[in-house]
Amino acid sequence: MTDSSTLLAQAERQCQRRGVRFTPIRRRVLEMIAGTSGGLKAYELLDRLAVEHAAARPPTIYRALDFLIEQGLVHRIESLNAYVACPCPEHAHGFQLLICRHCGRVEELHLDDVNAQLAARAHNLGFRVERQTIELLGSCDACLSATANA
């Protein structure tokens, strides 16, 4: 897992290259998400942000999240309705998420051959993919070890 200071530095460079504004609120939302190994829900982010910025409201969070997703800095975990930092925002291809159902840890994979096979199959069926989400729910090694030793 990439540390949050590295993710923030990558995000700043990427936003600068693209000519988009990485505002203090966007930075703080990314920092909060990057500071956890699992996903955070929008209202969890709002509760944390409201401690620092009393004027923070749901649109504040959702606008920041929309920006971060658009820039490839954050992914939405569809099954949990939560958000996780992308450890490699420069990777422009699809991704897969491994989600531990016990501790909530999320790991990102980049199995490009899987994405290529899915895209080719969809194309052959005359289907245009607009968005792809692959989430694998299971147990991480730490949780498996903990249950085995219990």
UniProtKB/TrEMBL annotation:
Q: Which GO terms describe its cellular component?
A: cytosol
What cofactor is this protein dependent on?
A: Zn(2+)
Q: Which GO terms describe its biological process?
A: negative regulation of DNA-templated transcription; regulation of secondary metabolite biosynthetic process
Task: List residues binding Zn(2+).
Answer: 100, 103, 140, 143
Q: Where in the cell is it found?
A: Cytoplasm
Q: Name one GO molecular function term.
A: zinc ion binding
**What main location does UniProt list?**
cytoplasm
What keywords were assigned to this record?
A: Cytoplasm, DNA-binding, Iron, Metal-binding, Repressor, Transcription, Transcription regulation, Zinc
Record family assignment: Belongs to the Fur family.
Kindly state the subunit structure of this protein.
Homodimer.
The cross-references to PANTHER family, in alphabetical order and at most eight, read:
ZINC UPTAKE REGULATION PROTEIN
Query: What name does this protein carry?
Result: Ferric uptake regulation protein
- What is the taxonomic lineage of the source species? Bacteria, Pseudomonadati, Pseudomonadota, Gammaproteobacteria, Oceanospirillales
